[in-house]
Design a protein that fits this description.
The complex is a heterodimer of chains A (499) and B (197). Chain A is an alpha+beta fold. Helices cover 24% and strands 26% of the residues of chain A. Chain A is built from six helices and 25 strands. In chain A, the strands form seven sheets. A four-stranded antiparallel β-sheet of chain A has the order 4-3-2-24, with no helix packed on it. In chain A, strands 8-9-10-11 form a four-stranded antiparallel β-sheet, with no helix packed on it. Chain A has a four-stranded antiparallel β-sheet with strand order 12-13-14-15, with no helix packed on it. Chain B is mostly helical and 197 residues long. Chain B has nine helices and no strands. Chain B is globular, with a radius of gyration of 18 Å. The chains are: A alpha+beta (499), B mainly alpha (197). At the A-B interface, helix 1 and helix 2 of A face helix 1, helix 2, helix 5, helix 6 and helix 8 of B.
Amino acid sequence: MTQLGQELRAIAERQPPPTIPSGFFHRARRRARRRRLAAVGLAMTAAAGVGLVIVTDGYAQREPLPHSVSAPTKPLYDLVGAGADGPLGWLILAVVLVLLCVLWREAPRVVLVRRLVAAALIGALLVLAAPPGVALWGEPHGRIGLPDRLAEPRSWTWAADLQQSPPGRVALVFSGPATHGNIEEGRLALLAADGDRYRVFDVFTDYLEPIGAENGEVNRNRALSPDGRYLASGYGVYDLSTGRRAAGVLAEAPAGWSADGQRIVRSVHDPMDGSLRSGWQVWDLRSGAMLREIAAEQPDRGVGGVALSPAGDRIAVEQGDRIVIYPTEGGTPTSWPRGDWRIGDSAAWSRDGRLLAMIRRTQCAGCTAPLQIRFVDAETGETVDGGEFSLPADVEVAVQGWRAPDQLVVQVGGAVEVFTRGTPTPARLLDLPAGVTHIEIATDRLTDPVRRAGPPTYGPPNNFLWLLLAPAALVVLLMLGIRWLARFRAGDGGPAGGR
Amino acid sequence: MTDDAWVPSEPDDGRPGFDEFVRTRTAALWRTAYLMTGDRHHAEDLLQIALERAAVRWNKLDRPEAYVRRVLYTQSVSWWRGRQRRVKEVLVDVVPESAGPPGEPEVRIMLAQALRRLTPKQRAVLVLRYYEDYSEEDTARLMRVAVGTVKSQTRHALRRLRELAPELTGLLGDPAGPESLNPRPHEDRNDDAVVTR
């Protein structure tokens, strides 16, 4: 033995050995069993979380579409549907903390508390920092119906774009200062027709914004097809099931749709002055043929003022101070005076083809402009019994379509109301979130039952998130690399104790 | 030196064998654990972990001491455990003055202090080579590293000790020839033969 060895022995022998307690053997084995159980519990928690979401998502997709009955509530689904950012994230964190507590039970109290606090902080950060509603494990499907409330995320910046993650058919689209981004001022938010899946569509100008509102006009072009599959915008028409622009007849944004979705009406503009509307064309989507072209008696720069009947066999247009009803297959039109009433958007024609919704904004200098809605006979223009309603002044009014043969759905300011013939007071269908000023509901969805809104999801992480995360990850990796290199050069051997 | 030829007297019944093992071998195992860590609390912790693992597998171990020692060696150089044990170095402006040639107790204190400032791997190499008298090959096998790693770690450890405590130069031998410190080659200890049934 060397002198160094002798000194080492002398150092070691100066320390008296500890006493190993008599029950050590059984305690050790009990501790090992407990640790194994905790480890198995952690693994099972993770597996159960993932499995629960997958199973629930699959179950939701197989569910038949509830067209006539209320959609059943699914508490389990609501719990896990929002991914890691919802209650599930907090539940898993709580279970993990309990299991870690069992796993580290033998550690000194201070160490245990320190470790648990660190684990809780990291876990809470992960749950909180998960972009809201980013559905890591799946998104809600199979929940047909209008939700009783819309999502109000802190920011729509993290939501996936429709081109990145097409939502499929949508129930509605809405916009306003709350959805508008800092760069794109016309960001629209879309809600899928069969679940609380939200997407955004960034456009330069808000397509839902009424044009000419300053002149007392209330109309705008229709953005959604009746089934919610197509979305018109200033950039053209997008197929929401693919996220791509539609071609053919739908290459150009229509001004209105027939309720069966088979025919559209387009505005025709003056070739010399693109903003001057000179007439309308009715197109059949199945054949791709133009059925009828109608010249405007008084070309104008407005929008709306046109509606197709549910089957697309008639078209009502504003011609001067009259409403003219043209058969789209050809034939003699009928007309009746409109006074200062206007066709209530392109969804104004009732589902049975008998009624038209008309809107009047009384104009006078220096006074507020009270609004009125009226149900009129499409053939004669006569107001039907119980079909007149007064609205508060100075609110945005947008006819959404018909929920039933005698029920008209209208956005009135910050709410969506149902006006029923014979009932002077409308019923509230939906309240718009703060900062949402425009909404358009796909007309097919208006007949669906109202369902309880579930936790919203916003699609996969969008490019903006990756652009933020990538530099952050790069910086962390660089710092780790530099630290490792410094330790290696200092002879520390690096984390693995290398040579 | 240490004797790992201990065999449980009642291999079929766990607890009596384990208690006997603990009673007879704790002191030797403790000394190794203490040298490996340089700290009494950490050494107790390390020994407890090794004994716990042995207790869990007791009925499957043919050579329990070899197993416990293997756990001591591997755990002492574990990066994760090393982070918790590492003694932080405090840099000072002036090297502390020596009061004169150190006596025997001072040498041990200086050596113990200097050992604490080595990396766990360097300390483990020194303990295995100079306390346990293992050959470079046996040390490499026990630590599951290459022989070259053992040589370089030994060289780095001795150089570091000389830097930290120049007074120990006589104890540590000639810097140019660390091989002069080579201990007598140990008989084949066969610590690697941790047979499990």
